[in-house]
């Protein structure tokens, strides 16, 4: 029997949360597919309008009666509006990345909806627990998108699990069921996976975006200096090269999407370009081990394979086939 992940009222059959990838990579359709397959689905709210977020939540609800939540980047200027929209739509949970605040946990209590925080250290995990987090997602250096640490997930999970009483969800570089089993053995209650679900049929990112994932090798993954103020992991392309070094390109316009922005480039514009198919002039975030993913599969098949691999990993060494 697989280990169980329980966060507030949520008790999924499979201890997997699908990561919320913005902009419009983790949509309602993808979240619903993961929920239907026994995991927890997440819609990325960052970069959406309130109406667009409501639409994505309603789409997910029309396709699934499983667990559906919303991820919003705390660094986004419209964080509070988007979080409150998600709470009013009565999602199963809200998760915040790139920071958190006392207010967001209070809003969750008022709406009786669990709030999760993405953290990168035991200190931040303890603070999130103190403020009212229902669980923490501890993210290692292997993750895609914005990074809060240069430490590997295998080093962080035992430290965080020993420092808090709430569930600990491991994230970063997890691509198969054997990786999941390893994280559970290290003390995690479950895992969050994002990169693996981009290469799914239900992901609504452009075919060119998915093709970048399938073609990428280890040497194609790079770090960028994001205007959010954190390093970010992405697939190397014309855009990442153009923003590097002294010859980086000038910002063409600003959407005003961040609370604090370095103005190196417009991250919202860069993410929108990539997900729409312009993968040379846009930003293609991915995890460190994207090169291990070589086929696009239905979400159900991805989840079935994860379960089979986990079950294989948890067979006692002394048992015989």
From TrEMBL:
Pfam families named among the record's database cross-references: NMO (PF03060)
InterPro entries for this protein: Aldolase_TIM, NMO
Keyword Oxidoreductase belongs to the record: yes
Keyword Phosphoprotein tagged: no
Transmembrane residue ranges: none
Keywords from the named record: Dioxygenase, Flavoprotein, FMN, Oxidoreductase
GO molecular function, one term: dioxygenase activity
Domain of life assignment: Bacteria
Function: Nitronate monooxygenase that uses molecular oxygen to catalyze the oxidative denitrification of alkyl nitronates. Acts on propionate 3-nitronate (P3N), the presumed physiological substrate. Probably functions in the detoxification of P3N, a metabolic poison produced by plants and fungi as a defense mechanism.
Name of this protein: Probable nitronate monooxygenase
């Amino acid at each position: 029997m697989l280990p169980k992940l329980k966060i507030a009222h949520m008790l999924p059959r499979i201890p997997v949360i699908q990561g919320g990838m913005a902009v419009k990579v983790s949509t309602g359709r993808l979240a619903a597919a993961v929920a239907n397959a026994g995991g927890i689905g997440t819609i990325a709210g960052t970069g959406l309008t309130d109406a667009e977020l409501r639409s994505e939540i309603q789409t997910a609800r029309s396709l699934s009666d499983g667990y559906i939540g919303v991820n919003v980047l705390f660094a986004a200027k419209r964080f509070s509006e988007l979080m409150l929209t998600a709470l009013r739509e009565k999602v199963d949970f809200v998760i915040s990345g790139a920071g958190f605040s006392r207010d967001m946990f209070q809003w969750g209590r008022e709406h009786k909806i669990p709030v999760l925080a993405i953290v990168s250290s035991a200190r931040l995990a303890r603070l999130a627990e103190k403020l009212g987090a229902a669980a923490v997602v501890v993210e290692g250096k292997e993750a895609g998108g914005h990074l809060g640490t240069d430490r590997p997930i295998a080093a962080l999970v035992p430290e965080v699990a020993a420092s808090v009483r709430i569930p600990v969800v491991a994230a970063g570089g997890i691509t198969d069921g054997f990786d999941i089993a390893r994280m559970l053995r290290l003390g995690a209650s479950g895992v969050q996976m994002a990169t693996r679900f981009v290469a799914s049929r239900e992901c609504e990112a452009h075919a060119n975006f998915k093709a970048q994932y399938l073609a990428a090798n280890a040497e194609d993954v790079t770090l960028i200096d994001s205007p959010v103020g954190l390093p970010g992991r992405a697939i190397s392309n014309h855009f990442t090269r153009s923003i590097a070094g002294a010859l980086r390109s000038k910002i063409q316009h600003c959407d005003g999407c961040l609370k604090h922005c370095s103005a190196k480039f417009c991250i919202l514009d860069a993410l929108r370009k990539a997900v729409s198919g312009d993968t040379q002039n846009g930003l293609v975030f991915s995890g460190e081990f994207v090169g291990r993913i070589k086929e696009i599969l239905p979400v159900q098949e991805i989840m079935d394979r994860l379960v089979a691999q986990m079950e294989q990993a948890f067979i006692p060494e002394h048992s015989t086939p």
